[in-house]
Write a structure and sequence with these properties.
Blueprint lengths: L21 H22 L11 H67 L9 H20 L1
Helix pairs in contact: 1-2
Amino acid sequence: MASRWNVMQNKPKKKRRTSLDLYEFCTFIVFVTLGSIGLMILLKLPSGTFDHVSDERNGIIGLGFLLSGLALIKFDTSARRRANEKFDYDLAEYELIRTKFLEMEAAKLELQKEYSIQYMSNGGNTIVVDPGEIESKKDNESEEDSDSAEE
């Protein structure tokens, strides 16, 4: 798995809003239910199901429908605000990560340039060895020596 610093990250995408929360879903269900009941009351379906409902209950259903609609609008605006804040945060973090990545790439290119200049200054005849390789070879030789001494 790649580290987050050694690969270029994708730029964050701006979304209209964040994902639907549970309270938004519940409010939406209440909104649709009250809207459906209100529509059936207004149409006065011939089945007689809603004929016994009084005008006071009709008003309560209508008021509940309006309040849940207003709550949905408020929840949507807060979800859009949260999406904007998340995008701004992700964009700032992306800029930081991208800057670090570019600095690391520049440092890596400088090291490669130094090794190639060192190689070219030796006339191309001498092999330039990385100091890390010399240390690992010494460690391997010392391990082999200790293994042969044990036998």
